Structures are given as structure tokens and as C-alpha cells.
Batch of 2 targets.
Target 1
Amino acid sequence: MNDEPQTPPSRSADRVYDQVKAMAVTYRLRPGERVNEVELARSLGVSRTPLREALNRLAAEGFLIATVNRGYSVRPLDPKRVLTLYEYRAMLEVGALRLACERASDEALDALAAFAARSRDEPDDDEHALELLTLDEQFHESLARLSDNEEMVRSLRSLNERVRFIRWIDMRKGRRSSTQDEHLMILRHLRARDADAAAALMQTHIARRLDQITDMIRAGFAEIYTGNALAAKAMGEVA
Amino acid sequence: MNDEPQTPPSRSADRVYDQVKAMAVTYRLRPGERVNEVELARSLGVSRTPLREALNRLAAEGFLIATVNRGYSVRPLDPKRVLTLYEYRAMLEVGALRLACERASDEALDALAAFAARSRDEPDDDEHALELLTLDEQFHESLARLSDNEEMVRSLRSLNERVRFIRWIDMRKGRRSSTQDEHLMILRHLRARDADAAAALMQTHIARRLDQITDMIRAGFAEIYTGNALAAKAMGEVA
DNA sequence: GGACGCAGATGTGAATACACTTCTAGCAAG
DNA sequence: CTTGCTAGAAGTGTATTCACATCTGCGTCC
């Protein structure tokens, strides 16, 4: 189970990258907060050099902001930006979907449908929001992979990570019931090679909660400054 | 004019980032070639530390590939990937365009049209391919900005940089005549708030040369290994 | 004669050391 | 009491040094 003995992953920078990303994504590092390099490095058990490499990559990917002579800070939780990311994600997924509709084999679509059907059996309570979110991301990412466009998949993965916290907040409100059914419906349209129908459904599937983003962010702030169960869980996984 | 005295841009890492990116984009560093850090650092007049930060960012953005214990190498010039990037770019621009159609003011569209009309006066010979390409990128980026979605603009910029070399090759074949007219036509559709027409035109505008990518890459290799005027020009700008 | 193996060289990954900028606290002048 | 100035502290940016992995070439063993 533990693969550490055979994989001493030569680069501590990569490990640190994952760890810090998890911290930023779950807002264990608080939005707007400035990162103290020596302190964080010490707490992660490495020197500043690999930490700075990780911070650099995270800044390049939009998780952090770099300011000259003032180091790095976590990107503030800004409604406008979250909206922007949601919008981008919707467009990207619809675009990938249209490509997938032309390119995906019937077998691949069936396999994904099987996965989606299996996901339906997961419990739907507040406790399992993270697992549900993970399943949802996996579904969407697998679907995007059927577009056979690696760069789109890459972008989608990055986008998903950046809005994960907000989506987790959203998931906990038990909105999921309809989600899984829509997944299956999208696949049915794809199977029928009806790109327009699939695209339209995907668009509403993603954009549905756009107008509630401000509320979700409000709830997000509450979570961040009063507990943050997501950060706790993520830490358990990574560290 | 020269702002160097008042702006000694505290971070040599940023300068190095721009320089190395220019090298990678123009394939002054050859595709597949492994980057020797000490050598490159010396030739840029800095130590390995800021250079490595630059390389990190470039790898995160997809310009370079990082391999464990073997450092960085320039991403090879792969037809499949270029096609992927073109495809992504087409989708992204069409998506941004649809948003712009809803959101852009008449004034903004007119201003952009004026810019496009002005660009028409540029000479069209082989020598000015780089300027033409720059103007084209500016047009498309300005258009994307009208979507009011910062993340899309960011992605588009990155995509443009990654395919710049190939597009430059393409530009030198004097394909431009129709380009400018199509730009104006797209704007006219937007002005009439006809998103579908604009989107369709944009799609063909970008995807037109997709089937010729293999040829362009062949020409690209020839350029890289026999002269590479683009690298020479870019060096003049940056260094 | 070929394959394996073993230094030495080369080059990357990480840690430490140093320089310089920004922030802070305290004092002095108005 | 407020404002401005000035060391000192704190923290980032860069250089240097050390550690370790990979590559190369030559010699030896089979």
C-alpha cells in the first residue's frame, strides 16, 4: 500500500509542490495571507530552495500571487474571479465535449457510463462531500479525455483544482441528486452523437449555480475562519 | 524612453524568464535539446538559482519539460501537439468571442475595428512576417479581452506564445491577404450581435490551416537547423 | 572479442550563506 | 500628541557550496 520504499521520489520539490498546493486549494493557507518562506520550509522539513521552486510553479499556475520583494501570497477569494473560472470551465468542457462526440468510441462512452452509474451508489450526506466531489471531477476529466486533446485536459485539471474549495462548499448542500442523472443523460446524447443536445445539457449542468457563487463564497469564508474540515482532510491525505 | 534607470527590476529571475522563454519560443534552444544550467546561467550573467526559477515557471506553463535528475529540455516540435494547441486555441477564441458578443460595447468594437483597419496598411512581404504576426496576436488578444474573462485571456496569451514559431512559419507564406478582411468581417458580425455567424467565421479563420501543420513543422525544422531568423530577431529585442 | 563493472567526470537537486529591501518600533523634534 | 526619522529586525532575492545521481570511457573478466 505504501509505496515510499520503492519510490523515494528524488525530488522533494515535487512533494512540497503537492503539499503547498493542497494547502492553497483548501485554504489552509488563508486567502490574501502572505507566505513566510522560512517558516513554511521548516514546517515542511525542507530548505527554502525546493519550497521556492514549488511556490514559483504554483504562482505560474494561478494558485498564488508573486510580488517583488514581498514574496508570495495566496490568491484572495474573489467572487469575480471564481465566476470567471466557472465560466471558463463551462466553455472548456463544452468544447471538449463536442470533440469527444466526434471522436469517442462507443466502448469508451459505455465504460464511462458504467463509472457514472456506479458513482450513484455513493452516500450523499454532508460527510462524503469530498468523495462525491472527487468522483464528479473524475467523471468530467474522463469525459474531457475523450476529446483526445491533452492540453484541454491539462487546463481542465488546473481549473478544477482552483475552484475545488468552492465546489466542495456547494456539494455539501446536497445538490447532488440531479447531478448523477445529468451525467448519464449527457452520455446518452453523446452515444446518440447528438453534440448539440449534449453541449446544451453540459452548459446548464455547469452554469446552473453561477448566480449563487457570491453566497457560496460567503459560506467559504465562514468555513475558512471557523474550522475548515476540508483542509483537515486534505492534510491527512498528503502529509 | 528608456526606463531602466528608474526601474532596476529587482528580480533578475523575471528578466531571465523572459529571455529563456524567447529562446524556447523561437527555438533558439533546439527542440528536444537538454538545457545545461551552468552554461546557460553563465551566458545570461546570473547564477543558477534565478535561472532555475525561470525554468520552473516555463515548465509549469508547458514550454519546457522537466525530468528528474536530468533537468529541463525544450519541448520537441511534435505535430500532434501543435494540432492540439491549434484546436484548443480555436475553441478558446470562439468561446471568448461568444461572450464578447454579449458584453462588448459598440464603442469597444469600433475601436478594435479601427485597429484592424490600420493593420491593413502594413507591408506584406517576407521580411515583415514577425510584425504581421504580432499585429494578428494583438487583434485576437484584444478581442478576447472583450469577453471580460481574464483567465481566458491569460490562457490565450500562453497558447499564442507556444504556437508562435509555427504561425510565424505560416505567415511567411503570404497567406495574410484574406486575414485582415476576415478580422473586419468578424467584427461586423459582432457589431450586429450575430454570435453564430461570428463564431463560425472565427472557427474557419483559425482552423483553416490545420491540415497543413505537418508541412509547416517540416518547414520549421528546416528553419531551425539552417538559420532561424526569428530567433535572431527576438534576441535583438530581448537581450 | 564482447559484456560487465568500476572509477572519474559531468550535471542536477538541495542546503547554506550572503546581500539587499521592506517593515517596525522607538525616539526626537515640532 | 503627532509626525518624521532612524536603527534594528524580519524576510525575500541571489550566490555559493555541498550532496548525490547519471553518464562516459576504459579496463578486466569470462
Target 2
Amino acid sequence: MPWKDGTGPPWLHGKFKGCGYRMTIPRQGILDVLNETADHLSAEDIYHKVHGAYPSIGLTTVYRTLELLVHTGLVYRFDFGDGRARYELAEGPKSIGHHHHLVCTGCGRIIDYTDFIEEEIELLKQTEKGLTKKYKFRVTNHLIQFYGLCEACQGTG
Amino acid sequence: MPWKDGTGPPWLHGKFKGCGYRMTIPRQGILDVLNETADHLSAEDIYHKVHGAYPSIGLTTVYRTLELLVHTGLVYRFDFGDGRARYELAEGPKSIGHHHHLVCTGCGRIIDYTDFIEEEIELLKQTEKGLTKKYKFRVTNHLIQFYGLCEACQGTG
DNA sequence: ATTTATATTGATAATGATTATCATTTCCAT
DNA sequence: ATGGAAATGATAATCATTATCAATATAAAT
């Protein structure tokens, strides 16, 4: 599928219409599902939830729409190592809702954290600037995850 | 498979023997491959390379060994979004070789960078300390990737 | 309103990386 | 040597994701 926004900017820019895409029922439904949850949903999770409201929507469309949303920067795709991708509505790195993840390698639990972000954002901004200069790399997004053991898993040797 | 090092420390600690595992030909061969390259190899890449030296080694063993290596912390597994996992010999975050990745979402190219790490390490150390205190989460590793467009892909709208 | 070109959809099948199974072989401790 | 756990490798199974393709819906043009 040819992307219409090849040079488009990262977050929340020119949504669908601005990019030449149509805002359809399935797409709206999928965005609604993403907007109504704080969880980290897989494609199939989303499919099941959307299906409740619009039973005619197929899994293929969910995957396609997510691909589109990720590409346009409206949605983030994460990999926590359990073999299926997770999706979250994107909020720019400066936004209130922006968070990073703690991934428990024991039980797979994901903890969002938004604390300690202040200094991180500042450092990341500088780092991105340096990377842009040195590698001519235009950064549109970043991924930060901490791996380790959550409280419950530290006891179980 | 039951892990023998349930409470074991993260990096390069107590390698195989210390963990109760045997250092076998296949395992040595896989470690050699990982040690001799700076690339980001997939399981199948590794399989092919190991096969050159030891044709009897099967793909299953490669996967199993990588799983083991990742679990013991000797190897990192990365996901760059192209559907297959990549593996790198682990070096502790303080080590010289430690690097983060720039992932080009245009062509899939991966750029390692080790610059600007100094301040990052310092900040990460503080962040990890805070996370440990607040969430009782014992951090053993972190993942930082920047996504964007490499120089070559910025022209092609 | 009708036509026309294009976008979007959904059912199905295909792909491909990773895992499970299981019989066989290797290795260590006794 | 020998008993038993650990490790291996061939094969089949799993399962998330993609490709295919005919059918439908939409926007723009007439």
C-alpha cells in the first residue's frame, strides 16, 4: 500500500482526511476502542472489542487499520516479547499521557510509568538533536522500556 | 524448561557452568558466531553461520540456545519491527560496547550509536533507582530505540 | 443524479517465525 | 562402567501477521 504521507510529520498531524484517507466506520470504531482503554491491546483484543459494536468488521481490517494508524503516527506499536504486538493511541512525547513501560520478565506484567519523565524528556531532546546532526537521522519517535522483575516475581526464585 | 538461575543477577554473571548448564559444541558455536559479528543477526542468520562450522546443528537448537542465552542475560533480543527477532551478545550498560539503536522506518536500516550515552547512563541510573523504590521493580535491563528516517530515506517522499 | 475511478472492506488462503513433541544421544556423578 | 539428567535434532504444530481477490462504498466529475 502506497503511503500518502511519505514526508509527513510525526504525531497527530493531519489525521486521516488531511492525509487523503477516509474516516470510515471501522476506522472510527478502532480508534474509539483505543481511546477508551488504558490497556495494551493486541490486534485480536481490538478485533474482539470492535466486533461488539460492529460485528461486520473483520480481523483483516483491524490489522490494516492499525498498520495505517501506526504509519501515520496516530498509534504506537509495542513489542513486549510475548509474540504479539500491542497498540496504544499515540500521544506526543510532550503530552501528559506519554509514558514508558516496565516489562516484568517473570509474569509479563506491564507497568506504565510517567514519573521521572521530566529529565528524560530533556535528555532525549538533546540526544535526538545530536543524532540528527551526526547521523542525519530524523527522529520521529522513541521507545524506552525497562526489563526486570516486578514485586510479585522477585520472591519466586 | 525450568530456569536454574531464577534469582540470578543480570549481565555476564556466572555464565553457563556457574548456572549449572553445560558448555557444549553447539552453544560454543553460537556464542562464537555472536562474538564474531557486529551485525544484528536473526535466529536463522545464526543458524546458517553456525552450520558452516558444524553442519549437524539444527535450527531448533539455535532457538533453544538463544532462549537460554537471553534468559541468562548473556544475549539481548531485539525487535525492530520486521517480524523476526535479532540477537546481540550482551555487554553491560557500563561497558564500552553498549549501544542503542536508531531504526529507520523507511528501509529498516539499523544504526548503532554509542555517543551521547554518558548522560543517558547517568539519567538511566537515577531513573532505575526511582523505579525500584516506587514500584518495587528490580530493573535488570533497558531498551532504548529511536525511530525515524535515515538520510537516504528522507528524500524519497 | 449518473458515471467513473479509486479506496476500502472482508473472507479465505498463504506465509513464516517460533514452539512443542519425542526418540536419540551426550555428558556428568557415582 | 552405568544410571539418570541434560541436550540435541528432525519433524510437526502453532499462531500472529500478510497476501489475494472479488465485492462494496465513496468522492469527484460530468
